Structures are given as structure tokens and as C-alpha cells.
């Protein structure tokens, strides 16, 4: 079976090929209900059509962006001449129509903008102040006139749509026809109402199956809808009521002033207010990869574009479906998620089992019919037919069709969806947003996690802990320390230090509604600004002192930020730089002494400062240098000068390791997952943090990015296995490491990222993990999972749930295959030997619901336990149905078949049954015993290896609910619904005997689990793994 599955049902978790997707679809056969089975499978035809629509729209946008013909301008000018305001817009206090406002950005025509009075005129027409932004109380009016920032979505499917889907099961339709015929024939032969009971029993059971199936599917759809809404929710920074604040993208309105920085997605169409080096990537809209510079001459921004570099502010002019991005989003929603490898594999398993089941169903019908005809022939009645004979043949056909219902495990692929939906919802509660279904599965196979340091391993709550300036190092933890610092340095030094802090920043100090200062920006910037405020600085005062001329925002390649300002007390300019200590120090040739004078930086001083930097780093402090340079003329330079600078200070920022990280790293190591730290920080800082977290071991390797870049491919093959820390790395280094780990070592790699430049590594990795707090929208868009709290422990939790999904599906498959084998062989063997089937159509439908829908609910939603992280990752090439599973399946099947065969052929004497109802009582007892065998086998399936299957059973309320409801309904069927289900009430002794026979499977399971199942990998000699830890046996066999 495994070879067949690998050949026809194998797809990649990320970016599967079109050929592989088509191949498995064509290999699927014997599908009872395509509408339900393939509901969570992408429609390739619709996807291709959506792609064509998207390309047409992109072409249209590209033409609008690149070609502006005079004729179009002329027409637009003509339209503007006839332009009139509607009464609704006037009464709302606005002076521009929504359609006209929409055309301002879409046309990219500066003449249209100028005709409205430019930026200031546009702001007046939408009734806002460019300084204070929108008044919050006016938001509903703006949404009514100009629309909400939401995109058209396909309407949600109602509960009745899922009922309709469930009714499309071909076998259920056939059974309904059989039931209708049975009712008609029964009434004709037996009269009303006794003649209708058999058929009505089938109808009621079909109704129950459809209802339970629809409820389960509807709940799944609601979970996916909530997750999808959360995925699209972006937090944007705006100025409202004179305050800078964060709001949801859904709450954005026309007139809002939006703040943009590197990696942000432009949330709506708009016009630039101000900005520095603002560069936009419009490839998602136009298909063109060339970045576009946004300036006063070209001030238009389109929703959906990404900020590639720089920063700025924009005035929102159009939202929602009035933007081109809104129209594109409609086509994107038709793409659908690719099916996961496990879904595809279980479609293959269902196909194989379905073929076997169909063969058994046909054989059962042929054997029953042949025996019936032979019996009639032997009695000489072959030419005499009655309505009773028709009913018998109809029952034979109904039993055969019901065998197909039971044999074709339609619920297998859907159990994966159920398990993933459950896991995704739980992970959402645990601060992990899964963007792609397959990531949840793949994380269970992860062998390596390449993690950032700042914010992931550390708390990301930074404070300036130490500062070196004027040749002295000081701790600045308390107010007393700060007062001592202020009194010990010259006023000139303090003034330059505060200028550097408040001028050279991408963050902002704003007053909240409560009057308290709030710092909006990255944690590093926040720490430095907070330090400046504690030193007595005033953000607004220092910003007013000088005008910012040019800004070079921080990025992970340059590892520095620079700003050029005009100096108020003299003619000329001053450049401020801050960034990675080694880089800024290498730019400096001068230093400020304790008197506030600028003096030459000697080699001895440079060595001393390097020692200070390394000393800070050894204390696990993040180090930054601040420097400045006075410049007389900048007219001939496009960039900010970065040579011959004067060093102001070295700052050591404390960022403590998060609580629980060390334990989480140890959990990973115990689970066979190697943890590697990849950071842009100083190597000594990285080493100190890595040792504290338990990542860096004695024989592990810590290396800097530039050193790795200079290595040959052969050297990298020898070096990468021991690599545990990579410091001073560029995003490209992370990308290179991921490629090496995947291609040369066959690792399943999870990688974290937060910056725009991390996108290639996130895209390349098997699982891309973007940070929810510090991560840019570009990083999140390229990720598979968003870690909402930026916590490494959450990443480990995703791995735990990934393993749980895989193991839960294996449990369900083990349980379902056991039921399939027993039901098929029992009915077939009984048909061949006695000419009748002990399990009737209604009973088989109930068994099908137990194993299909209810079994999936019970086993596929079990929460993970700690034991999952004490076993190795699940290998990519491991057999899905393992030897351990086959041992349990065959052992339980043999036990159940022996018990049921003995009862079927010798049950009356064993149970001392006599009288006219002995046969009915025996058949009811067999049915009851069969059901209890499945109930106890469901408990057995909770753990495929350990004998104690009761442990933790009460932690899963859903499992307990399914068990209780199954037993309760079984009592109702046997004791009260006998007329419809072909059962008779049983005595207390027979109930006890049924339960004990079923419970015997617990003893059989314990015996089976003592039988050793060897694998080649277990037999192999224990060798050292490439990461320096003892190799763990791989595959889920050792679960």
C-alpha cells in the first residue's frame, strides 16, 4: 500500500506542483460524496480562472501606472468641469464625491490632485487636519459616505448547505430509495404500520448520519472562517484626535493619516504627506518587481503595495472595494489553500480500502443471492415469486450497499481537516496563527529550528543598562545613576547625546489620552528614547531645534541608521549615526572627552572601546554606538556622510531571556530538534544568550556571518553540522543556511523572521515563522505561521501540536481499519456460511457513524501530551501505516472476529437462548458486542504503544463526550428502537456479557503491545548525530 501511496498520492507541503495535484485527483476512485470529500480541496479550474482574472487586473493597473495619455487627461478634465456634489455628501460636511476621490489615486494624475488644491485642498475637502487627523466620533459618517475598508467575500455557507452536501452521498441516496421501496412493499405485504418499520429505520438512521455529519462540518467551517478573518487583520498606525495610535485595518477610513515604515503593507489608496527615502514595491498589484520611489512629484500610494525602504505618512483617499487591491482580493479568495500531504495520503488510503470494500460488497450480494436462489431451486420454488422474496432480495441489496457505506472511509481525509481545524483553533488561543494548513503537519516533522534572538529568546522589553562615554563606563539602572551621569559629563556632551537620541530615531514619543508619554517604535528605539527622557530630554523640544533634511532608515543589511539635520545655532548641518558597535566605531576617527571637546581617537583608545563593547556583550547586553559629524555642505552628496565621525557613546541594552525558554530548548533537544540561533547582534552577546538558553554546547560552533560568506561549499558541508550560533548575520546568510540544511542534510527546517529582508528565508524554509509583534507585513505574508507573542515557547507548542495532528490521525486510521476489516469479513463470512448477514443495514449505518464522524471527533481532536516531545521527529519517508499499527489492527481484528464468529455460529447454546425470539436476541447480542468492541478499541487507540490508555482520558472532554453519547445511544437503539433497528431488549446478564466481551479488547491490546516490533533503524548501531547529540530513532513507530 505504501508504494502505491508514494507513487500516486505524494505532494510537497509547500508549493506542490500542478502535476502532483492533478495526479492524485485522477487516482482517486470510489467516492461516495464528492461534494463533501473534496470540499477542502482546491478547485484547480477555478484557481486557473482566478489567476487569469488577476493577470488581467494587473495588466490594467500596470497600464494605468505606466501610461498616462493626454487624451485621458483631457477626458478627466472634461469630467471635472461637470462635477457636482450630491446632497448626501454636502450634509455630511464633505466637499468631494467618493468616485472623484477614488480617481485621484487611481489615475496617478498630479493635475487631478492640483485641481483639488493639492494635498492641503484634498484634506479640507475630506474635512480633516493634516496635523490631528480624523476625529474618532466622525468615523461612522465617513464609513457611510466613503465606505468601509473591507473587501467583498464569498457569503458564508449556511448550516443547511452542509446538510445538502451530506445528502449527496450516493450510497445514502441508494439506501433512501431502498428504504422507500421497502416501505411500499412492506405495507403491501404486512399492512400498516408494521410493514413500514424496516424502511423507516433506515430513513431515521440516514437522517441521524446526515445531521451529525452536517453539524461536524459546519463547526469546522466556522473555525476556518474565524482564522481566515484573523489572518487578514493588520494593525496600522494612524494619527487620530491629535494622537498617534494603533487600529485594525478594518477600522481605517477616508481621511485617516497613516504612518508607514519598512515592511508595512499600504492599507488603502492614498497621497503622500511627508516621507524619507520612501520606496514602494507594487509587484503584488502590477506584477512589476521594480521598486517605485514615492516623492512630492509622485505622491500616490496604492493599497496592497509594500514599503521596501524608508518611512512616511499618507492621507487615505479610498478604502475597501474602491481600491484596485480590493478587486484583486476577490480573485485571491477563489484560489483556496492547497491540500496538505496528509489529506492527500488519506485520500489514497480511502481509495484503496474503498476498492476492497466494493469487492466485498459485490461478493456479499452475489453469495447471498446465489444461496437464496439455490435454496428456492432445491425446494422446487424457483418459478414461484412473491413480494416476500422481493423484500429479501431488497434487504440483500441494502446490506451490500451499507457494506460500501462502512467500507469506503469517506471520513479519513476529512478527519485530517477536523484535526487541523481543532489544532489551529487551540494554537490561536496559544498565540500562534497558522496561515497555511500544511504548516501544522510539517511542524511535526521539524528537525531544526533556526531562531532569532531578540524578542524570541529574549523578552523584547529592553532598557539601557550601561553606557560608556567620555572614557568612563557607568551603570544607569536608577535615578541616582542618571543624576551621577549628568553631573559627571560636560553639558556639551549631554546636549549632543540627547540630540543624537531624539533626532536619529524612527520612533515617536506621543501623549496618550491619559496624558502619559507613550513611545511608539521598535523595542531598541523605545529603550534609547526612554533613556533620553530619563536624562531630562524632551522629544518635541529637540525635534523643533533642528529640521530633518535627510533620513537613511535602519535596515538589517547596513545595520545602522543615519539622519542629517540642519543646526540652529550655526550655519551648516549635522549627521547623526547609530547602529552596530563595530560598524559605527570603524567610521569614527574622533571622540568627545570629559570637557566636551572633540579630540582625535588614538589606536589605544580604539582598543579600549572595543574591549568595552566586548565586555558589554559578555554580559549579554546588546551594544550600540552613537556618533555624529558636522557637515558644511551636502548639496553634492546623495547619501549621508559616514566617515571621520565623532564617537559620542557606547550603549549597552539589557534584554533578559524569556522565562521558560531554557526549558523549551531542552524540550526541543529531547525531541530530536536542533535549535540554532541566527542573530545580527555582536558574537559575544549572542554566545552569552545562547549559553543561558542552553543552545550553545561545549563542542558547538559560534561563528559570524561574514566568516560563513567566505567559506567554500565543501567547507560549509563540514562546518554547518556543528553550527549552533550565527552572529552578525545578514538575512542572506539565514537564507543560505536554510538552503544548506535542507538540500545537503535533508533537514526539515523551521525558521523565524521579522524583517522585510527575512522574506526569502521564510519562503525557502519548510516552515516559516513570522513574529506577530515585531514582524513586518512582508515577513508575515511570506510565513506559514505567525507567532503572535514572539515567544520561542510558542514555537515549541506549534511543533507539539504538529506531532499531535499526525499521531491523532494514525490513531483514527488504526481504529477505522479495525472496524472495516471486522465488519467486512463478518458479513461476508456469515453470508457464505449461513446465507444471512448478522449486522443489518440500520445497524451498519450506526456503526459507520461511530467510526466515521464520532470516531474522528474523539480521536482526531485529542490534545497533545508531553510524551510527544520525548520522541524523534516524524520522518518524511516514514510509512504512514506503521508495523505497530498493523500489529494492533490485525490483533484486534482477529480477537473481534473470533468472538463474533463463535457467537454467530454457536451463540444460542453458549448463551442458553431458546424460544421464538432466540435468533433476534442472538443477533442483537452480536450487534451489541460488536459496538462495545469498537467503543473499547477506540479507547485502545488513544495510545498505539503504551499499555496504560486511560491516563489523560479525562483531559479530552470531547473524547469523553463521544464515548458517553455512543454508549447512551446504543442503549436507546437496543432497548427502545428495536422496531426500527431490528433489535430486541436484552437482559442485564446479556448487557454485562456484551460489555465484558468488548472490554476483553483492552487485555488483548495490552498483550499485543508486549510483542516487539523491530525496525532497521532500531537495529542499527547508535551513532553520533551531526548536532553533537545522541542520535534518536526516527519515525513514529516508537510512539
TrEMBL record:
Coiled-coil portions: 40-67
UniProt entry tagged with the keyword rRNA processing: no
Domain of life: Eukaryota
Membrane-topology descriptor: Multi-pass membrane protein
InterPro entries referenced in this protein's UniProt entry, alphabetically: ATPase_P-typ_cation-transptr_C, ATPase_P-typ_cation-transptr_N, ATPase_P-typ_cyto_dom_N, ATPase_P-typ_P_site, ATPase_P-typ_TM_dom_sf, ATPase_P-typ_transduc_dom_A_sf, ATPase_P-type_domA, Ca_ATPase_N_dom
Assigned GO CC terms: plasma membrane
Catalytic activity, reaction form: Ca(2+)(in) + ATP + H2O = Ca(2+)(out) + ADP + phosphate + H(+)
GO molecular function: ATP binding; ATP hydrolysis activity; calmodulin binding; metal ion binding; P-type calcium transporter activity
Ranges that cross the membrane: 166-189, 195-215, 352-374, 394-423, 817-837, 889-906, 957-978, 990-1008
Predominant subcellular localization, coarse grouping: membrane
Top enzyme class: translocase
UniProtKB keywords: ATP-binding, Calcium, Calcium transport, Calmodulin-binding, Coiled coil, Ion transport, Magnesium, Membrane, Metal-binding, Nucleotide-binding, Translocase, Transmembrane, Transmembrane helix, Transport
Enzyme Commission number(s) from the entry: 7.2.2.10
Domain Cation-transporting P-type ATPase N-terminal: 115-187
Compartment(s): Membrane
CDD domains found in the cross-reference section: P-type_ATPase_Ca_PMCA-like
Alphabetical list of SMART domains matching this protein: Cation_ATPase_N
Role summary: Catalyzes the hydrolysis of ATP coupled with the transport of calcium.
Membership in a protein family: Belongs to the cation transport ATPase (P-type) (TC 3.A.3) family. Type IIB subfamily.
NCBIfam families from the UniProt entry: ATPase-IIB_Ca, ATPase_P-type
Name of the molecule in the record: Calcium-transporting ATPase
Source organism: Rubroshorea leprosula
